[in-house]
Amino acid sequence: MSFVVGVTGGIGSGKTAVTDRFAAYGITVVDADLAARVVVEPGSPALEAVAAHFGADILQADGSLDRAALRGIVFADPAQRKWLEQLTHPLIGEEIRRQIAASESPYTLLSSPLLLESSSQRTLANLVVVVDVPEEVQLQRAMARDNNDEAQVRRIMAAQLAREERLALADIIVDNSGSLDELDDIVAELHKEFLQRAELAEH
Ligand code: ATP
What we know:
The chain is α/β, with parallel strands linked by helices. Helix content is about 55%, strand content about 10%. It has 10 helices and 5 strands. α1 (about 15-25) crosses α10, α2 packs across α5 (about 80-100) and α4 (about 65-75) crosses α5. It comes from Kineobactrum sediminis. It is found in: Cytoplasm.
């Protein structure tokens, strides 16, 4: 099993900016959000179960999941949310493990906004990297990227782990409040460190 570095951080903190830089060194990035999409692809047993439970209205004309409709239902109804999570979380965990097992790079990144909230994901990581910026920066960058209004970004931030809680659970904190050039240097150093740690873990 590959040495796994978990990467997490709040909305707009720069997880993608960080993982893109590791990917440029040839490191496999397993993305928990993408894994969550794979398990409900058209034709999957999980999507059939979702359609049977919520009705065919939850599907779009092309047979794919209407994520906005599903979000609307489960965020309004905790029991439905629980039903959905009990179906999908084990499958997402399996998909993540499958992708990690298939990775051929010297170590593997697991990028997940819910790394610290999900014990099954957390236990897959040998090390936890938290990408951190002050909340004001997080807000500005998330708003600029997605054209989201401030209230929407603040709602998402409020639903995520608080900054201090996240930092307390980090093995390594990447301060992404500087420029992208500075981030290049931080990742270059960390890549060297992770290569060494992965090598040590093999012996
Ligand atoms: P989400 O969880 O919302 O997907 P994320 O943590 O993956 O977010 P990114 O998409 O990497 O965050 O970064 C958010 C925005 O901020 C992007 O538009 C990105 O280009 C920009 N950004 C990231 N890091 C920096 C930086 N150091 N300087 C300037 N802009 C940055």
